[in-house]
Amino acid sequence: MSDTPITDVHAHILLPGLHAEVERRAPELVEEAAALELKRNGAESLAVSGPMVGARVPKLTSVAERLAAMDAQGVDRQWVSASPNHFYPWAPEGLAVWIANEANRLIASHVAQAPERLTGLGLVPLQHPSRMLECLDDAVLGRGLAGVEISSFAGDVELSDERLEPFWARAEELGAVVFLHPFGCSLDERLDRFYLSNSVGQPTENAVALSHLIFSGVLDRHPGLKLVAAHGGGYLPFAIGRSDRAWRVRPEAHRCEHEPSSYLRRLWFDTVVHDAHALRHLVEVAGGSRVLLGSDFPFDMGLDDPVTEIRAAGLPDEITRRILGGNADALLETRVRA
């Protein structure tokens, strides 16, 4: 390993045994969810995605395959989070809590096979705010995970929802990472062709979710919250001036203490932006200490050679070193450990 280990904070695991049990327990709901996926993605994209994921199952399930792929990429460490299809935002309360706790157990077991190289992020049932706290504690205190992964919304729960206040407070208290990774876009069938469900839907959902956090004052009330946004925060860092304008001229948009752009320096962002110019802009608006190497391993919309892409982005050497690993290390230094 290098003096400063290279860390990929956006890498996924697939949990086929968990999904099989969910199918057994709630077959009708799984069928309804599949119909929604067809509506949102379109048959053409699903026909491509199936074989794509199938070919990557070994990297998504085997620690040996994962480590070999990391070695090939020059990555020393990964933060491993569930593939977002395991969010099950439609699951009723009892099933949703079981899913989160079982996912936490399975992820902890996976990363325990290579603890010097793998760090786990668990799940919480976002659609049931009253149960999120116990699942967060299960992940961090019960399983030794570094935090949890959440979607951009679930059912009627937006990230500005007052019912999430105890969750944000507890995450802040524990120093836990909260990894924001959307699954599905509420624009539904408007994005059902050309793979717009991912190329447009994911950055849209990131922008909406982060805007809920900013404008509602969550980051004012919880300044120590460690929230990492996948996909470079989506569209928000690149259109933040419009948010600032709304904050200045619209009373209903003036509920956070400072201009929205200032909160970009209170958040963290991964590097899955697919564009060196966009990456440099992200560093400019968020700061060199707030950007983390991410690849979306091992999916086709990720970065195949993430380390090389960062090094070729034309950033100052010190910022490049921070992005490659220093910033991720700093985020984990103050977390509460099991």
UniProtKB/TrEMBL annotation:
SUPFAM superfamilies: Metallo-dependent hydrolases
Residues covered by the Amidohydrolase-related domain: 8-332
Alphabetic keyword roster: Lyase
Entry-linked Pfam families: Amidohydro_2
The name this protein goes by in its record: Amidohydrolase family protein
